[in-house]
Structure formats: C-alpha cells, structure tokens
Q: What sequence folds into this?
C-alpha cells in the first residue's frame, strides 16, 4: 500500500472533521437562546440628569438569530428582554426621597466577536419602554422610552455561557412633557445564557 497516495485523503478527512466541529460550534453560537441576569447600577449626572438613583434588578430575555442585523460579517441575535428594577433616590433636595419599581422591555441587537470562539466580547444596541411606579424630578411621566448601549465579555460555564458586562440606559419621556431631564443609568450586569 502506497502511504504517499493516502496522504491527500487523510488530510482531507482531518480537515473535514475539523471544519464540521467548527461549523457545529458556529451553529450553536447562532442558536436561539434564553437569558437570565441580575444587575446593579446608579445614575450618572450627565445629559441633564440631576437626581442620583441607585438600584438592583433582574432580567429575562429570549434571543434568536437575525441575518438582517448582521454587521460587516458579524452575526447578530435579536434579543427580546423584560426586566424589573428597584431604585432609591434621595432626590434633588433632601425632602423628596423615593423608592421606585420599574418594569421595562427592550429589543436588542446583540453582536458577538469572535464568533468561532467560546469566549470573547459582545456588544448590544437596543430600544425599549419602561413604566416607573412614581414620577420624580428627572422622570416626570410614568411611561418612558429607553435607548440602550451595552458591552461585555462572554465565556463558557459548564453547559451554559456566562456574560459579564455594562449597560447604559437612557430613560426619558422623549420630549412629550417639559422639562425632560431624564435619567442616565449605568449598570453592571451578569447573565447566564441557556
């Protein structure tokens, strides 16, 4: 048997199995996903925000691949997320301390790079709406819009994936009522992807 004649066949077989393993992983990355997470944060005194709020919350999301959102060859998931956020503020003056609960929903385009690795970075851009239990100095309506930017790191955690990141959420009434100071919340969040 001529071993040299088998070399191209062996190389092709090894390359095919490596490609198949990588392709399987890529399909996994682009699969439908469920997310659960916890977050904590506070407001930033930028873009009109005068009231410092601190808070904690939880989120639940469902993501699916969406080819229309791909950006320069980077695939994206369309993630639909709902969250609850408990916040406290001492107010602009000391007489207006409040505890609030907010519920919201976001539609997020989530990008991950590098795609072929089980760890790397993710980037989020999204938009949504939030209902807050009480109005305040910065939020003079209960119903507000919420543009959002976020980024973080993802890595394997057993059969699942862990994600650690930051998120900037701008909460305002979109100019429906003046003044429209709004809140700019910076969150640190941890998520598990199932």
A:
């Amino acid at each position: 048997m001529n071993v040299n004649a088998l070399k191209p066949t062996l190389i092709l077989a090894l390359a095919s199995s490596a490609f198949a393993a990588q392709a399987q992983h890529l399909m996994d990355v682009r699969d439908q996903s469920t997310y659960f997470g916890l977050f904590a944060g506070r407001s930033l005194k930028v873009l009109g925000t005068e009231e410092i709020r601190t808070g904690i919350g939880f989120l639940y999301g469902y993501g699916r691949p969406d080819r229309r959102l791909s950006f320069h060859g980077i695939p994206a998931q369309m993630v639909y997320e709902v969250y609850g956020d408990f916040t406290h503020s001492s107010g602009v003056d000391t007489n207006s301390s409040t505890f609030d609960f907010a519920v919201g929903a976001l539609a997020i385009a989530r990008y991950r790079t590098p795609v072929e690795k089980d760890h790397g970075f993710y980037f989020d851009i999204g938009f949504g709406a939030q209902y807050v239990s009480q109005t305040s100095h910065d939020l003079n309506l209960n119903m507000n819009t919420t543009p959002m930017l976020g980024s973080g790191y993802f890595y394997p955690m057993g059969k699942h994936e862990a994600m650690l990141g930051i998120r900037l959420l701008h909460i305002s009434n979109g100019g429906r009522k003046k003044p429209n100071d709004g809140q700019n919340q910076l969150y640190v969040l941890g998520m598990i992807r199932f």
Helices lie at 3-29. The longest strand covers residues 98-113. Residues 14 and 105 are 47 Å apart (CA to CA).
